[in-house]
C-alpha cells in the first residue's frame, strides 16, 4: 500500500516538475524555484504548486478576461468626463525629454492620465495619516470609498469602521473593499455596523474553490477616495502595528500620500475597477460629479501625477516598467526605500548599470524584519549591489515605506515593493510624481531617514555566519514564489 502511494507521489511530482519547466519557460528562475520545491518537498511541493504555481497561469487569464468589461467601462467613463489622457500642454516647461518619455510610457502601457493641478501631503507616520483620514471621513458629504490590503480588528480598525458606520447612518454612500487574506486577521462581523447602516462591504475575492486557488494573487492596494475630491494612497494599512505598537517590529516607519486635484479622479477610477470586479455589478453615474468632483481652486496645486496600477488584471507589469524607465533616466541619484528587496534580474541590472555609470544609488531596508524568510532573501541580494558601489543602509526599526526618488525630476510612492511579488503577482498601485518641488521634498525625507540608519559595510556583510549564508542562499532560490 505504502509502495503504491510512494510511486503515485513520485509520478505526480514528475508531472508537476515537467509542467513547471514547460509553463515557466519564459522565466527560467521561476522554473528552477518550483523544481527545487517539488524535489525537496515531494508531498507539500505539488500542493503548493497546485495553489501557487500552474493554477495561476490559468487564473491570470481569467482575471484578464473578467477585467475586460471594467476596462471598457472605464474607457467610456473617460469619454464621459472628457479626460485628456495625454496632453503635452499640461507639461512643465522644464520637463526634459526623459520625463516626457516616462509620462508617455505610462499613457501607452496603462492608460494613466497625466494631471498637473495636484496638491500633495506626504505622511511619514501612521499617526499623522490616521488623524487626517478620520477628519476627512467625518467631514465627508456624499461618498467614501475604501480599499485596503489589511484592516485589523484592533483599536484603529474599530475607530475607522465606527466612523464609516456613522457616515453610512447619515445617508452617505459607503463602499469598503478588502483583500481576501484580511479575513484571516479580522472576522467579517467587524463590518456589521457599516452594513447595518446601509453601507456596502466586499471581499475582493469571494469564497469559492476557484478563488482559493488564486490565493497567491493578493490585492495589495491601499486607496481611499472621499467625496470624489480627496484621495489617499501609500503603504499604510489599517492596524495598530502601523503605529509602532508591536514592540517586536518597532519603531515603524512608513509613507503615505493625501492628494487633492484631478489625479483623485484616477484613484476613483481604479477603485471602481476593483469594485466592479468584486461586485460583478455595474455602477450607474447619473451624476458624475458625485464621484468625480470638479477641482476647486483651494484644492489645486502644481504637482504633476500619474496613477499607475499593475497586477494579474494587466499584461505589462506596468509599475515595474515605469520604475525601470525612471532608473535608466537617472543622471545623478537614485534613492530607494523598500521593506523587501527581492528584485528580478531586469531591475537589479538597471541599478547596477546606473551605479557603474556614476549615478549615486542608495537603498534603505529595515534592520528589523517582519517576515524573516523574505528578509533572508533580501540579504542575499545585498552582495549584488554593494559590489557595484551601491550603498545599503539599515533603518533601525521596521521600514515599510515604498519610495523611489530619481534626481530632482521624478519620484514614486505607493504600494509596490521592490520584489518579484509586487512586480508580477500582486494588485498594486503607485503615484508617479513629476517636478522639482515634490522630488526634492521626498529626497529630504529620505536623507532625514538616513539619520536613523546604519551603513551596511562590506566587512559587516561578509561577517555573517555560514549558517546564515546557507539560509539566504536557499531562500534566494525560492524568491520568485515568496
From TrEMBL:
<dbReference type="GO" id="GO:0008808">
    <property type="term" value="F:cardiolipin synthase activity"/>
</dbReference>
<keyword id="KW-0444">Lipid biosynthesis</keyword>
<feature type="transmembrane region" description="Helical">
    <location>
        <begin position="29"/>
        <end position="52"/>
    </location>
</feature>
<keyword id="KW-0808">Transferase</keyword>
<dbReference type="InterPro" id="IPR025202">
    <property type="entry name" value="PLD-like_dom"/>
</dbReference>
<dbReference type="InterPro" id="IPR022924">
    <property type="entry name" value="Cardiolipin_synthase"/>
</dbReference>
<feature type="active site">
    <location>
        <position position="407"/>
    </location>
</feature>
<dbReference type="Pfam" id="PF13091">
    <property type="entry name" value="PLDc_2"/>
</dbReference>
<protein>
    <recommendedName>
        <fullName>Cardiolipin synthase</fullName>
        <ecNumber>2.7.8.-</ecNumber>
    </recommendedName>
</protein>
<dbReference type="Pfam" id="PF13396">
    <property type="entry name" value="PLDc_N"/>
</dbReference>
<feature type="domain" description="PLD phosphodiesterase">
    <location>
        <begin position="215"/>
        <end position="242"/>
    </location>
</feature>
<feature type="active site">
    <location>
        <position position="220"/>
    </location>
</feature>
<comment type="function">
    <text>Catalyzes the reversible phosphatidyl group transfer from one phosphatidylglycerol molecule to another to form cardiolipin (CL) (diphosphatidylglycerol) and glycerol.</text>
</comment>
<dbReference type="InterPro" id="IPR001736">
    <property type="entry name" value="PLipase_D/transphosphatidylase"/>
</dbReference>
<keyword id="KW-0812">Transmembrane</keyword>
<feature type="active site">
    <location>
        <position position="222"/>
    </location>
</feature>
<dbReference type="GO" id="GO:0005886">
    <property type="term" value="C:plasma membrane"/>
</dbReference>
<keyword id="KW-0594">Phospholipid biosynthesis</keyword>
<keyword id="KW-1003">Cell membrane</keyword>
<feature type="active site">
    <location>
        <position position="402"/>
    </location>
</feature>
<feature type="active site">
    <location>
        <position position="400"/>
    </location>
</feature>
<feature type="domain" description="PLD phosphodiesterase">
    <location>
        <begin position="395"/>
        <end position="422"/>
    </location>
</feature>
<dbReference type="InterPro" id="IPR030874">
    <property type="entry name" value="Cardiolipin_synth_Firmi"/>
</dbReference>
<keyword id="KW-0472">Membrane</keyword>
<dbReference type="GO" id="GO:0032049">
    <property type="term" value="P:cardiolipin biosynthetic process"/>
</dbReference>
<comment type="similarity">
    <text>Belongs to the phospholipase D family. Cardiolipin synthase subfamily.</text>
</comment>
<keyword id="KW-0677">Repeat</keyword>
<keyword id="KW-1133">Transmembrane helix</keyword>
<keyword id="KW-0443">Lipid metabolism</keyword>
<keyword id="KW-1208">Phospholipid metabolism</keyword>
<dbReference type="InterPro" id="IPR027379">
    <property type="entry name" value="CLS_N"/>
</dbReference>
<feature type="transmembrane region" description="Helical">
    <location>
        <begin position="5"/>
        <end position="23"/>
    </location>
</feature>
<feature type="active site">
    <location>
        <position position="227"/>
    </location>
</feature>
Amino acid at each position: 500500500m505504502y509502495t503504491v502511494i510512494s510511486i503515485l507521489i513520485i509520478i505526480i511530482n514528475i508531472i508537476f516538475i515537467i509542467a513547471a519547466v514547460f509553463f515557466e519557460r519564459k522565466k527560467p528562475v521561476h522554473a528552477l524555484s518550483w523544481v527545487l520545491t517539488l524535489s525537496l518537498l515531494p508531498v507539500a511541493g505539488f500542493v503548493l504548486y497546485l495553489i501557487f504555481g500552474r493554477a495561476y497561469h490559468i487564473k491570470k487569464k481569467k482575471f484578464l478576461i473578467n477585467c475586460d468589461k471594467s476596462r471598457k467601462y472605464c474607457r467610456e467613463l473617460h469619454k464621459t468626463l472628457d479626460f485628456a489622457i495625454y496632453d503635452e500642454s499640461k507639461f512643465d516647461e522644464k520637463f526634459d525629454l526623459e520625463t516626457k518619455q516616462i509620462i508617455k510610457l505610462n499613457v501607452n502601457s496603462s492608460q494613466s492620465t497625466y494631471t498637473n493641478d495636484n496638491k500633495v501631503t506626504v505622511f511619514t507616520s501612521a499617526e499623522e495619516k490616521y488623524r487626517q483620514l478620520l477628519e476627512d471621513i467625518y467631514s465627508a458629504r456624499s461618498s467614501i470609498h475604501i480599499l485596503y490590503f489589511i484592516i485589523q480588528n484592533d483599536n484603529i480598525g474599530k475607530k475607522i469602521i465606527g466612523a464609516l458606520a456613522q457616515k453610512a447612518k447619515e445617508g452617505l454612500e459607503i463602499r469598503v473593499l478588502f483583500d481576501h487574506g484580511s479575513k484571516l486577521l479580522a472576522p467579517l462581523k467587524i463590518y456589521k455596523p457599516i452594513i447595518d447602516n446601509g453601507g456596502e462591504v466586499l471581499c475582493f475575492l469571494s469564497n469559492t474553490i476557484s478563488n482559493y486557488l488564486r490565493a497567491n494573487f493578493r490585492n495589495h492596494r491601499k486607496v481611499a477616495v472621499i467625496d470624489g475630491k480627496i484621495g489617499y494612497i501609500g503603504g499604510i494599512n489599517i492596524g495598530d502595528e502601523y503605529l509602532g505598537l508591536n514592540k517586536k517590529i518597532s519603531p515603524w516607519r512608513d509613507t503615505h500620500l493625501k492628494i487633492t486635484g484631478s489625479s483623485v479622479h484616477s484613484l476613483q477610477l481604479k477603485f471602481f475597477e476593483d469594485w466592479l470586479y468584486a461586485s460583478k455589478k455595474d455602477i450607474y453615474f447619473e451624476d458624475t460629479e458625485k464621484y468625480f468632483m470638479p477641482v476647486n481652486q483651494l484644492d489645486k496645486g502644481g504637482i504633476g501625477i500619474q496613477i499607475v496600477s499593475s497586477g494579474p488584471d494587466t499584461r505589462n507589469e506596468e509599475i515595474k516598467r515605469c520604475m525601470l524607465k525612471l532608473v535608466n533616466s537617472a543622471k545623478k541619484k537614485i534613492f530607494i526605500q523598500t521593506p523587501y528587496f527581492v528584485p528580478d534580474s531586469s531591475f537589479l541590472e538597471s541599478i547596477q548599470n546606473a551605479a557603474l555609470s556614476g549615478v549615486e544609488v542608495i537603498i534603505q531596508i529595515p534592520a528589523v524584519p517582519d517576515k524573516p524568510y523574505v528578509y533572508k532573501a533580501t540579504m542575499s541580494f545585498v552582495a549584488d549591489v554593494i559590489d557595484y558601489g551601491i550603498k545599503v543602509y539599515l533603518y533601525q526599526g521596521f521600514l515599510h515605506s515604498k519610495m523611489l526618488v530619481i534626481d530632482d525630476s521624478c519620484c514614486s510612492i505607493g504600494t509596490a515593493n521592490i520584489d518579484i511579488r509586487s512586480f508580477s503577482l500582486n494588485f498594486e498601485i503607485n503615484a508617479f510624481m513629476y517636478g522639482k518641488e515634490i522630488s526634492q521634498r521626498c529626497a529630504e525625507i529620505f536623507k532625514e531617514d538616513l539619520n536613523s540608519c546604519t551603513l551596511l559595510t562590506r566587512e559587516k556583510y561578509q561577517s555573517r555566519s555560514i549558517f546564515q549564508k546557507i539560509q539566504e542562499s536557499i531562500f534566494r532560490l525560492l524568491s520568485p514564489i515568496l
